[in-house]
Amino acid sequence: MSSENCFKLHIDGSRSTSFGKIGTGGVIRDHRSNWISGFQINFGVGEILDAEAWGMFYGLKLASQLQINNLIIESNSVVLVQLSQCANLEMPSWLSP
């Protein structure tokens, strides 16, 4: 990252294959890769896309609380990235605060 006003949110979800329990976490870093803030949340049983989507939700919520507007989001979930790039995507009601 080059701009001093640019931040990066990296999110990752996880799922236990034996029990189906999901969790998510994320970290926000500045343009020099310095840690700004982060989060980790455990949920009940769910699918991996649920964990990834909750990670994006909580990461964006954290960025908003920190008043970060210039944000690059990184995720290793191809499906989540594709969903977030859809032109007509509306936030599902279950993701609304």
Top keywords for this entry?
alpha+beta, 4-stranded mixed β-sheet, 35% strand
What does this structure look like?
The protein contains two helices and four strands; from the N terminus they run E-E-E-H-E-H. With 97 residues, it is of the alpha+beta class. A four-stranded mixed sheet has the order 3-2-1-4, covered by helices on one side. A hairpin with a 5-residue loop joins strand 2 (21-29) and strand 3 (35-45). The longest helix has 18 residues, at 48-65.
Which helices and strands occur, and which strands form pairs?
Elements: E1 7-15, E2 21-29, E3 35-45, H1 48-65, E4 71-75, H2 78-84
Parallel strand pairs: 1-4
Antiparallel strand pairs: 1-2, 2-3
By DSSP, the count of extended strands is 4
- Oligomeric form: single chain
Helix content bin: 25-40%
- Physical arrangement of strands within the biggest beta sheet: 3-2-1-4
Please identify the structural class as seen in this structure: alpha+beta
The average pLDDT score comes to 85
Number of helices: 2
Cα distance spanning the termini: 30 Å
Shape summary: globular
